[in-house]
UniProtKB/TrEMBL annotation:
The keyword NAD is assigned to this record: no
Keywords assigned by UniProt, alphabetized: Cell membrane, Glycoprotein, Leucine-rich repeat, Membrane, Repeat, Signal, Transmembrane, Transmembrane helix
Entry keyword annotation includes Repeat: yes
InterPro entries per UniProt: Leu-rich_rpt (IPR001611), Leu-rich_rpt_typical-subtyp (IPR003591), LRR_dom_sf (IPR032675), LRR_N_plant-typ (IPR013210), RLP23-like (IPR046956)
Protein name (record): DNA-damage-repair toleration DRT100-like
Coiled-coil regions listed in the entry: none
SUPFAM superfamilies linked: L domain-like (SSF52058)
Membrane topology field: Single-pass type I membrane protein
Length: 368
């Protein structure tokens, strides 16, 4: 039977359609193999499954969109409960860098390459051209360089986790354009400079974790505009200025950690009045003035740490009327007078009040 050119054309189109339905496109497969080529994982053999023409079927850590058969998720974690780790009896270890070939996967929604300890190099700047990205999780590696300047183009990004790396430079101002961002963890890097003043535009954000960097400048007042923000950690930086009183009016803020900065001024009474704030750590700053006498039956702190500051005066007796205060640390200040009786003071150790000017009473071994 003679095959006409028209028949061959139709056959080629048909085979292309069948291939698209039953397997991932060659371009996606090639992009993944180029990504794999720049990585070395010597112990678990996770890349041993990356064989065959269909990267949507049986390739470890790869998931595809079931409708269009395009690569949608890359999920490679070096610490996991997956049986492959249990069988090896160890956590993962991987070297290499992130290939720009990832940017060819224009249907990618999830990029997780986390906790491999030794992946280095920079974040490919072209990732910001992937319009469907919702999750970027690169925690626990040795990635360096800057956060891509135009990261704000990722309008669907909900999770940005770059913690525990060696990323330097400043936080890009474009980051405030991430209107869908809910979780931002940039902690334990080498970021410097200031937090963008209009960070409050991130209206969907519930967690902002920026601890253990080299950030400077003041705490942006605009943070108080983020209605959903529950967890704010700016500890172990070099932040200066006063604590904005507006933070105390945030309706769902439950954790505020400003430990180990260079903050000054007085403690805003609004923070201690906020009945939803359960963890407040203001230790190791240069805060001064009196401890606000605003405690009451709605006060509920699992942790209240005001140690290593320059607070003076008496411990408010109203603290005894609090509904609950678990861990309390007022040590290393300039407080005076008698320690109030009753809860929470009756279950605290002397270390909670050590190194003040003239505190007396139980649990200190100093009579009033």
């Amino acid at each position: 039977m003679k095959l006409t050119g028209d028949f061959l054309f139709k056959l080629t189109v048909l085979l292309a359609v069948i291939f698209t339905v039953n397997g991932c496109p060659p371009a996606d497969r090639s992009a993944l193999l180029a990504f794999k080529k720049q990585l070395s994982e010597p112990y678990l053999g996770i890349f041993n499954t990356w064989t065959g023409s269909d990267c949507c079927n049986g390739w470890y850590g790869i998931s595809c969109d079931p409708e269009v058969k395009r690569v949608a998720d890359i999920s490679l974690r070096g610490e996991s409960e997956d049986p492959i780790f249990e069988k090896a009896g160890r956590s993962g270890y991987m070297t290499g860098s992130l290939s720009p070939s990832l940017c060819q996967l224009d249907r990618l929604t999830t990029l997780v390459v986390a906790d491999w300890k030794d992946i280095s190099g920079e974040i490919p700047a072209c990732l910001t051209s992937l319009p469907n990205l919702r999750i970027i999780d690169l925690v626990g590696n040795k990635i360096s360089g800057n956060i891509p300047a135009d990261i704000g183009k990722l309008s669907r990004l909900a999770v940005l986790n770059l913690a525990d790396n060696q990323i330097s430079g400043s936080i890009p101002t474009s980051i405030v354009n991430l209107n869908s961002l809910m979780h931002m963890d940039l902690s334990s890097n080498k970021l410097a400079g200031t937090i963008p003043s209009d960070v409050g535009e991130l209206s969907m954000m519930s967690r902002a974790l920026l601890s253990r960097n080299q950030l400077t400048g003041s705490i942006p007042v605009s943070l108080s505009k983020i209605f959903r923000l529950a967890d704010l950690d700016l500890s172990m930086n070099q932040m200066t200025g006063t604590i904005p009183a507006e933070l105390g009016s945030m309706p769902v803020l439950s954790t505020l950690n400003l430990d180990s900065n260079k903050l000054s001024g007085e403690i805003p009474s609004s923070l201690l009045r906020n009945s939803g704030l359960n963890i407040l750590n203001l230790s190791r700053n240069s805060l001064e003035g009196y401890l606000p006498d605003v405690f009451g039956p709605k006060t509920y702190f699992t942790e209240l740490d005001l140690s290593y500051n320059n607070l003076r005066g008496l411990i408010p007796k109203s603290m005894s009327s609090a509904k609950y205060i678990g861990h309390l640390d007022l040590s290393h200040n300039h407080l005076c007078g008698s320690i109030p009786l009753g809860s929470p003071f009756d279950h605290l150790e002397a270390s909670s009040f050590a190194n003040n000017d003239c505190l007396c009473g139980s649990p200190l071994f100093r009579a009033c």
